[in-house]
TrEMBL record:
Protein name (Swiss-Prot/TrEMBL): Transketolase-like C-terminal domain-containing protein
Tree of life domain: Bacteria
Pfam families, sorted: Transketolase_C_1 (PF22613)
Domain Transketolase-like C-terminal stretches: 39-171
Amino acid sequence: MYGGQHPDPNVMYYLTVYNEPMPQPAEPEGLDVEGVLKGMYLLKRAENDGPRAQILASGVAVPWALEAQQLLAQDWGVAADVWSVTSWSELRRDGLDAERAYFVDPDAEPRQAYVTEKLAGARGPFVAVSDYSHEVPDMIRQFVPGQYFTLGADGFGFSDTRAAARRFFLIDGPSVVVRTLEALAGQGAVDRSLARQAIDKYRLLDVTAGTTGNAGGES
């Protein structure tokens, strides 16, 4: 964390610790290091054909996004790319910096926000999921170049297994699937009936039906 040279000697690092086992894969070949440092990179492109969508996820929500990608492909014929967001706040800071630069110098060539640039060629609606409140992924809403939908865990007062809690807050893999189908239906890319079929198939309103994040026990 402190190796090498950093442009800001006052930079601070922090670690977020979760009560959940998380696999730590080796660094893939061709990793977008710039994207990791600037706040977002393409983690896994869809391998199937079909209506396109983009899923943005951060932290422990990344495995749920990958689960949703798989379910969308195998159950609904939707091709969803998954983006790993390493920092919503860094993406927002960059976007605000780009806006400010043009604000104080309107004669200069406008600079696109990093997130806008990264998602410029992506097709379909954008669905973001986080175990933080909705306000966190909403921080980049103005910089996302298309229809943007967020899923988050707002409020307190529900205590159960991790899987049940994620189902309660509608942030687990099947919830991402349903929200993506609804977004695609709104664009006319899929039939509206698919969202209802998915709600019934995954028993979305039943907290006992949740399975996302059960690895490692029920605590």
